[in-house]
Design brief:
heterodimer, A: alpha+beta, Alpha-Beta Plaits, four-stranded mixed beta sheet, two-stranded antiparallel ribbon, 10 strands, globular, B: N-terminal domain of TfIIb, Rossmann fold, 5 domains, eight-stranded mixed beta sheet, six-stranded mixed β-barrel, 23 helices, 28 strands
């Protein structure tokens, strides 16, 4: 029985966490990328690291409308693990190193099990998984600034966004100490959501009809990137501009991870 | 019947065993273990363990002064976050701010005074004592130099208004030829045109951004780091419209409501075109404006005549913006109100000239934006502290106003403005014969690499620092960045260095330690009992008058509190002049003609317009968090140094291909760049990125002075370098 089935067979009601990214609000400041790296102990690049070998759980794309000067327009698209319910990376992992957590719906990566075959990277249509090509090394002394809730991953494993799982653990421990089983809506939010200055990111329980995110998901302007693949991502994007929707959905999956042109 | 167990059977068993083993977990387990053994080494770090606690302070990376909440393990910060709903910045932090706690461990960090040895291809350091450096400065101060050979002892401070800035000025006032200078490349300088229009130097002004419904931005990177970034982000979130007047398809232009790509150098012409429409279509409220100028009717008549030639048709031809769109924008400025016009600057491309600034800021007068309760509001200055109010202070000068080859000793303050400063701007002011350059910086990076000696200063969160109001703040504010760390042993606070120097040359020292000076300044603010102090622990605003003692006020500030002044109801007397106080109509018109001629270049040798670009806080080459590679190197979200963006059409004319290595040639030299075709770039223009050096990100073994695009930009006498005629060299 795989992890996905556990979610459906468990009678206990658990949250199913997801996120909505409002592309009309995102200004491409990049704060989410840095906050994610700090929170999750992602190492800085070595001098020979490139945009194809880097490790950026929260990656920013600039998607163009495809029109030349002076009619160019662009939109910034934060791209990270889409936390699919029908999870291609889970199916292909020979090591059971990918887990769909029945308690949260979060797709977790277990580095201790991963032996770096990278099948999951090939399977992920969002290119949101990253291989650790280098030992995680920080400049001398800077290792003291690592987040104590997150272990640095070793070389040779795949890693990705896990909605700041360390924060979930922290929030759950706090709730348990107060005798609660359920978390309040604002009690657990990933680092990128906390730092976004324009509140372009909304996080919450998709199964709670009263939550802000559930209302956003019902909005007709909200869509899933590559929704046609049927992976049932729990990360949604939102825009009122049709060209943005078309350009993002059509082109985010490109052959390189460089700037995407519509 | 018995069968002998022969050699063949042994082989069969071994072979069968090996074949069978493939179907057992053993080989997989071995592969797994092998990968684990080869992945885990002693140098893979283990995070600190200890009590978790939170502390509050203020970021000092740039002059915005954003409040931060540090999550600590014991005394060690492990992450920095904004403070939600903070009245100063609404809780936003920029990407650089998130890595502020990394800077104390930056590989380019210096922990001892050093002499920099400039060799042919690299630079190295030798340890020296602070006394050696002091003795060298003393000798230079005491030597009798003639004015012809240059005799200034100068302090370059790109973040004026801090307590340390007043200490510098007090020190320099006491020594012969002491000169306090700024580069004039920071955002405050972009306000000078406004102050010229207002005819005031002593009255500070800020912006009521939150009230604006439309912002017409001339080159200001509003959504990438301008003023206090959180304010603009908040305004944007609340639906403020942005019309971006900028040649480059910048991040701000990409998401602005309208991108108005004017030809390079024609921003002022575009502003005058808008003014022409506003006046000639009677879109201005003359009754309201007449109160703000002594001779309003005459002033307006003069101005109208001066800009009569800037008709939409003419401006369309010069700027490349359609005539009807110019009219539409001008009308929109009076319908989508209140609308604010901002004269900004691209962080790498340098400031607008004073006359361009006057042309742009003048639109605010026509829109009735200036004065208490409007969008451009007067604010009080923050007192300097009792010691400095009474002390004679050296006046503030701009480096471009000094004669060439006039500085004999240059001391450079460690705090950078976040904006690019071409070294040539400074170099040409130094005497040709053996100048002495001393940097008071924590790092061997940026301008420090050009110095002769370095006094290592404390870095972020290592010492108590004060934060004067950001240039855009609508009221006076004051905060104190409380330290998290103790600085290394041989690190010297710049004021301490000045005191040692003062003692050596026999002049008056400052009172007490640097923290004492800041305390004194705080006491003066407290005595006025005005405004509020924001307490981050509980999110409350307390009236200053309700704080019982000065000590308590200091304690609040030293724990992350932020003092916010009351709005100023009445400004000092001012009378607006649309030509600026230092111009009459004739000289203004002459300057406009000069600006108008600047593009396109008539020089066929250099047919392209070179415009550098970059990101605030990164273009100054100072150290940044090594995690900035997430935006620069591990992704191509921001363009790295010497990446040249050109339109494919421009590339075609030059017979280039995408990704080619080539040279950009200007009158000032040539530079190797990598071409990137981008059809959002204006044809005929080349934008070259100024990004962080590797040594300012993760440090390098061999430190070198690397040439960047600023080395080949034409530096004008007024200290601007916004556009340079260029050509693309041979492939």
């Amino acid at each position: 029985m795989n992890n996905r089935n556990k979610v459906t067979q468990d009678n206990q009601k658990h949250p199913r966490y997801g996120m909505v990214v409002d592309l009309d609000k995102c200004t491409g400041c990049g704060a989410c990328s840095l906050a994610c790296a700090v929170e999750n102990n992602q190492q800085p690049a070595t001098p020979d690291m490139t945009n194809r070998t880097g490790n950026t759980w929260m990656r920013m794309y600039k998607v163009h409308n495809g029109k030349p000067f002076p009619d160019s327009r662009a939109v910034f698209v934060p791209m990270f693990c889409q936390q699919c319910d029908d999870t291609p990376c889970l199916y292909v992992c020979p090591q059971n190193a990918v887990e769909l957590d029945p308690m949260t719906g979060i797709v977790a990566q277990i580095p201790e099990r991963c032996f770096g075959c990278r099948y999951c990277m090939a399977a992920c249509p969002y290119e949101s998984r990253y291989f650790n090509w280098w030992d995680p090394v920080w400049p001398e002394g800077m290792e003291k600034t690592l987040n104590p809730d997150v272990s640095p991953r070793m070389r040779g494993v795949v890693e990705k966004c896990n909605f700041c799982h360390g924060r979930w653990q922290r929030a759950r421990a706090k709730a348990a100490s107060e005798g609660r089983r359920e978390l309040r809506e604002d009690e657990y939010i990933p680092a990128c959501v906390e730092c976004c200055p324009t509140e372009a990111l909304t996080f919450g329980n998709l199964d709670d009809p009263k939550s802000k995110i559930a209302k956003l998901v019902d909005d007709p302007n909200t869509f899933k990137i590559l929704g046609r693949l049927g992976t049932k991502p729990k990360v949604y994007y939102r825009t009122t501009r049709s060209w943005v929707r078309n350009a993002v959905d059509r082109n985010i999956y490109s052959e390189t991870k460089e700037t995407v042109h519509g | 019947m018995s069968k002998r167990f022969n050699r063949r059977d042994v082989m069969k068993i071994v072979g069968g065993g090996i074949a069978g083993m493939v179907f057992t977990p053993i080989p997989w387990k071995l592969i797994d273990d092998l990968s684990i053994w080869t992945q885990n080494w002693s140098w893979i770090p283990v995070p600190l363990k200890g009590d978790i606690n939170y502390k509050y302070s203020i970021c000092t990376i740039c002059s915005a002064g954003c409040p931060v909440r540090a999550r600590n393990v014991g005394t060690q910060p492990v992450s920095l976050w904004g403070i939600k709903n903070h009245p100063v910045n609404n809780g936003a932090l920029c990407p650089l701010g998130f890595g502020g706690h990394h800077l104390a461990f930056h590989p380019a960090r210096l922990r001892h005074p050093v002499k920099i040895v400039h060799e042919k291809n690299k630079i190295s350091t030798e340890k020296v004592s602070c006394a050696d450096i002091i003795s060298l400065i003393r000798k230079n101060i005491e030597s009798k130099q003639t004015p012809q050979t240059g005799n200034l002892i100068a302090m370059l401070d790109d973040r004026p208004g801090r307590t340390v800035s007043y200490a510098y000025r007090a020190f320099l006032a006491q020594i012969p030829n002491g000169t306090y200078i700024t580069t004039g490349t920071d955002e405050t300088d972009s306000m000078q045109g406004l102050y010229e229009i207002l005819g005031t130097e002593n009255q500070e002004y800020g912006f009521n951004i939150e009230k604006a419904r439309t912002i017409v931005s001339f080159g200001a990177p509003l959504l990438e780091g301008w003023g206090i970034p959180g304010r603009m982000m908040h305004a944007r979130k609340n639906g403020c419209r942005i019309l971006q007047v900028e040649t480059r398809f910048s991040h701000t232009a990409s998401v602005a409501d309208r991108w108005l790509p004017v030809k390079p150098g024609t921003e002022a012409v575009f502003a005058l075109g808008l003014a022409n429409v506003l006046i000639n279509e009677n879109l201005i409220d003359t009754d309201k404006l007449s109160y703000q100028s002594a001779n309003f009717d005459k002033e307006l008549k003069n101005y109208k005549e001066c800009i009569a030639g800037y008709t939409p048709a003419y401006v369309a031809g010069r700027t490349g913006i359609k005539e009807e769109l110019i009219r539409e924008i001008a009308r929109e400025m009076t319908t989508e109100t209140p609308s604010l016009v901002i004269c900004g600057r691209e962080p790498a491309a340098g400031p607008f000239s004073r006359e361009e600034q006057i042309a742009i800021w003048g639109l605010n007068f026509l829109l009735g934006n200036i004065g208490p309760g409007n969008l451009i509001v007067p604010r009080r200055s923050v007192p300097a502290g009792a010691s400095f109010s009474e002390t004679k202070l050296a006046s503030v000068k701009k480096i471009s106003d000094l004669p060439d080859h006039s500085i004999r000793v240059l001391m450079i303050d460690e705090a950078e403005s976040g904006h690019a400063i071409p070294w040539q701007l400074i170099e040409r002011k130094l005497v040709a014969d053996n100048p002495l350059v001393i940097s008071m910086s924590p790092y061997l990076a940026g301008m420090t690499k050009r110095a002769d000696y370095v006094i290592p200063a404390p870095t972020q969160y290592e010492s108590c620092q004060d934060i004067p109001p950001s240039f855009d703040s609508q009221t006076a504010t004051y905060a104190v960045s409380a330290p998290f760390y103790t600085p290394p042993e041989n690190v010297i606070q710049p004021t301490e260095f000045l005191n040692r120097l003062a003692e050596d040359i026999g002049i008056e020292k400052t009172n007490g330690s640097y923290t004492d000076m800041i305390k004194e300044r705080t006491a003066e603010i407290y005595e006025k009992k005005r405004g509020w102090i924001y307490i981050p622990h509980n999110g409350r605003l307390i009236e200053t008058a309700d704080v019982f003692t000065g000590q308590q006020f200091w304690s609040h500030l030293n724990n992350g509190g932020y003092w916010i002044d009351e709005p100023l109801e009445q400004a000092d007397n001012y009378s607006i002049s649309l030509f600026g106080i230092s111009h009459d109509r004739g000289s203004f018109e002459k300057a406009l003609r000069q600006i108008d001629k600047s593009y396109p270049s008539e020089n066929t040798t250099y047919p392209l317009a070179l415009v550098p670009f970059g990101w605030r806080g990164v273009v100054d080459s100072g150290p940044v968090t090594p995690l900035i590679t997430k935006l620069y190197q591990e992704t191509e979200f921001r363009k790295g140094t010497n990446r040249a963006l050109i339109h494919p059409e421009t590339g075609g004319f030059s017979r280039l291909r995408d990704g080619a290595q080539t040279t950009i040639v200007t009158d000032s030299g040539e530079l190797q760049v990598r071409i990137e075709f981008n059809d959002s770039v204006m044809p005929g223009v080349v934008h070259v990125a100024l990004g962080p050096d590797q040594d300012s990100i993760t440090g390098v073994k061999e430190v070198r002075i690397k040439e960047n695009i600023l080395s080949v930009c034409s530096l004008k006498d007024n200290g601007t370098w916004r556009m340079t005629p260029a050509r693309i060299g041979t492939v």
